Prior knowledge:
The strands form 2 sheets. Strands 1-3-2-4-5-8-9 form a 7-stranded mixed sheet, sandwiched between helices. By secondary structure, it is of the alpha/beta class. The chain contains 11 helices and 9 strands. The longest helix has 16 residues, at 243-258. The radius of gyration is 18 Å and the shape is globular. The chain has helices at residues 28-37, 61-74, 87-98, 121-128, 138-145, 152-159, 176-181, 183-186, 216-222, 238-241, 243-258; strands spanning 5-9, 12-17, 40-45, 81-85, 105-109, 162-164, 170-172, 200-205, 226-231. The protein starts with a strand and ends with a helix. The model has no long low-confidence stretch (mean pLDDT 96). The protein is 37% helix and 17% strand.
Amino acid sequence: MKLYFQEVGAGTPLLILHGLFGSGDNWMTIARRLAxxxxxxxxxxxLRNHGRSPHxxxxxxxxxxxxxxxxxxxxALQRPIVLGHSMGGKVTMWLACRYPxxxxxxxxxxxxxxxxxxxxxxxxxxxxxxPVETIKSRREADQILSxxxxxxxxxxxxxxNLYRTEEGGxxxxxxxxxxxxxxxxxxxxxxxxxRADLPALFIRGLNSDYVRDEDIPVIKQHFPRARIADIAGAxxxxxxxxxxxxxQHLKSFLQELDA
Length: 259
């Protein structure tokens, strides 16, 4: 599968993998800052069934990590650093454990290797409630979604997936049907025997419950060289909520790799 991607900068290859319902575009602000302040060629692919990348009935971490492996080989990237957030962080972990020789290091943002309960049911219900073929405006979609998702910022993020068709109507860029039907795939944990002896940075938001203290031994079981960095005043969207702290931890880790 050929993934759609954007790129910025020049130098050391670095991939950024977005989370569920997202796209590479969500990380462009961070990517531009990194490109301006360091010597990095940053690739921002849209994972399968997301953004402008192809849709597929197969949607698993194995398939998504295979897509990224193929992307690395297609673009002849020499041992890139891979950063992943949430679902993208799980893809990063799978990739690192399956193909450690392809990577230089990994950065995982606010996700642990464990299984999570399915907790996006209400969001899915709200998205499916929007009759995209007949709505007349984004405002109408937002009004419908607000019955299910009260947070304005979350709705704005979700509705970035809505686009106008050539016929003048609306459609979803993401493969909402497959995501809704296979949501359990995205909350599964890393297989118990998966391990990668790579430099690894796990960054967590202290207002988030995605990476708990009791998850740290599990992280180090899979990634023995992992270190944990905490960001105060940030929840799950740590890179958007506290970009300066996030960049500080990230750049410090990257500089040590170059030392």
